[in-house]
User: Fold Lipase from Populus euphratica.
Amino acid sequence: MERQLLIVFAIMISLFISTSAAGEFNFEANLHRRSPDETLCNQLIKPAGYSCTEHTVQTKDGYLVALQRLSSRNKDLGGQRGPPVLLQHGLFMAGDAWFLGSPEQSLGFILADEGFDVWVGNVRGTFWSHGHISLSEKDKEFWDWSWEELALFDLAEMIHYVHSVTSYKVFVVGHSQGTIMSLAALIQPNVVEMVEAAALLCPISYLDHLTAPLVLRMVALHLDQMVLAMGIHQLNFRSKILIDLLDSICDGHIECADLLTSITGKNCCFNSSSVDFFFEFEPHPSSAKNLRHLFQMIRKGTFSHYDYGMFKNLELYGQLNPPAFDLGLIPKTLPLWMGYGGHDSLADVTDLERTLKELQGKPELLYLENYGHLDFLLSTQGKEDVYNNMIAFFRSLGKSSSS
Assistant:
């Protein structure tokens, strides 16, 4: 644990250097700028033999977020498509998270080969998305958001876009932070009316029973407040200085798989080559405010809007504490499916039970005792253990026309 804490402090210091310094310390760390051919379609999806198109959606607050659309290797893009499915990634990830295994192991490919019309979401700030209509990634205002905005702006607009293009209600699939976003979005009547059903992998709304030792230590040390106090707004762990740091850490000093375990819990079912490939694409940037919001949830045991402090809360919300997201507002008629694991240190079973009590409906549940947080994305047996069950749930609902 001491070595891991040293890693955390080194990361914090390196973040400060790479974000604040100038001159010789300016590494052009933001990898957001890519050449036109460096797209998710071209990098991961087309090389596997799938047709893929890129789409850009503008949110109501001006961010330009990317969607990719793919279909089976065995079907012409111009042919009949199945029901639309929107995949929403988790924290420090992007749409590539659904394609980090072989076509037989990765959910994005599996759904396409099963005949679904697959759409892949990428929230603001991630490498595949496209910035803002007026703000630069160098502006602190660009990073003034948490998962709340990701849910109510990014995900809501992506669902609307897919619904409008396909004229069908959308199956939404989320993992980790993608499930927080999904639950918050589905509370909104104008969003849920466009959704056929939701499947949540490692579902999270409450976090106060989280057991990940490294995360709990960071929360206890108030590292989220330290980062904001240092004037850091973007958390970009792929800056050159951070890449060099993590390379040195993982080269004979500490197993990066062990570092993942201290954050996510023990994962049973993926191998070291999967971890290596994972780190080729992850992590993606997020905002310091987002981390702060998540740490607030851990400390307070709430599923609420961002806490700005007493006086600003009064100004924004008309009350001292931020209002909660009321899970009871998700319609009882909305079909829900949830997959969760016994070794998941982030999506704790006790917290999930609280979520289930607050929902009106009764979701279909898949519990895997030996699965950890990342197994639901990277398991070599994911199709057999998880995805076939999810797909059967979708197929039981059929393909509904938009209202």
Residues 17-33 have pLDDT under 50 and may be disordered.
